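Mods, move this if it's the wrong board.
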Amino acid sequence: MFLKVQLPWNVVIPAESLDMKGLILQKSIVIRLLEDFASRKATKDLGYYLALTTLESVGEGKVRQQTGDVLFPVVFSAVTFKLFRGEIAEGVVHKVLKHGVFLSCGPVENMYLSKMKMPDYNYVPGENPVFMNSKMSKIEKGTTVRFIVIGTKWLEAQREFQALVGLHADYLGPVS
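Not the wrong board. Structure tokens:
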């Protein structure tokens, strides 16, 4: 679920904002790195970028001939979030449909729990539709559900993941 990774990155400092005093230059590099990191949502291999934790090293700057900007190679540690097949996790229901429910878990907002993967639960239509079992356990909008990840799919265009989840194992379902 959470991964600690070490990443190489290139930080470009615009020529007009360069001030070669040591601390101010390092501050500019860190600020630009944080901005670049925040704007990049996720990757297929590492999942969603959550937090930059440590700046490990800053390499020697190279001046770009056309613009005069300076490119600094950096290495930093970060925390990412990625779901794996077979993993047990919890999510919150945000949409209830006749054939299943959609959940969100951390930054993953498109997790589908099919009616077929909810043993013993039946759809109950109404103004606020729910899935209910014989023990009166409900899955409705706002319910936290413990599930198993069946599979994930990376969508390159949106730079996000989708997941198919199920309740077909012990101790899975609505969490009290």
